[in-house]
Write a structure and sequence with these properties.
about 180 residues; two-stranded antiparallel sheet; 10 strands; about 30% strand
Length: about 180
């Protein structure tokens, strides 16, 4: 990649697969190259373990990227050591809900045992890569309807810790029968 794009910011992120047209793609490498004619980007790699809290992590990202002409933030985070909901909520708070934030967590099939992210280097655990998009020539939008539908058995969650499912009513009933 570096030989093809010597001045590019190269972001690496493990995945659980991709959706392409009408099918899913797994065990493949996907490479996307984007060139902006008039839009400036700034990238930063953040080590989760060198921040004492999610608040400090959010402040570090804000202090690195926040400028008057920041139009959006793309975040790719490893998914093993961080709660993605807490990360996004902290960034929303740090940017005072003024900047659209997009992105997701790295995956490793269905395990979430080792996910990796990297910027201009080999991908490793415990990293977050953030891209800031700047200037008047780029615009972002979003939609809340994308064609997704529910899947799997319907459950009534009776015990959870933030966004981590621990137990549902059915598993409690069968355990004591």
């Amino acid at each position: 990649m570096r030989k093809l794009y010597p001045t590019a910011e190269i972001i690496i992120c493990s995945s659980s697969g991709q959706i392409s047209n009408q099918c899913t793609v797994a065990d493949e490498v996907v490479i996307t190259a984007i060139n902006f004619e008039k839009t400036l980007i700034k990238t930063v790699s953040v080590d989760i373990f060198s921040n004492d809290s999610i608040v400090q992590l959010g402040e570090n990202i804000k202090n690195t990227l926040l400028q008057d002409n920041l139009k959006s933030i793309l975040i790719l985070s490893e998914g093993t050591y961080i709660n993605g909901t807490e990360l996004i909520n902290e960034l929303i708070q740090q940017t005072e809900s003024k900047i659209p934030i997009y992105g997701g967590l790295a995956g490793d099939e269905f395990s979430f045992e080792k996910t990796i992210v990297g910027l201009n280097a080999d991908a490793t655990s415990g990293k977050i890569v953030v891209v800031g998009f700047y200037g008047e020539h780029i615009h972002f939008g979003y939609s809340t309807r994308g064609g997704w539908s529910d899947f799997g058995p319907q459950r009534e969650v009776t015990v959870s810790d933030k966004n981590v499912f621990i137990q549902d009513r059915r598993s409690v009933c069968t355990r004591f029968i």
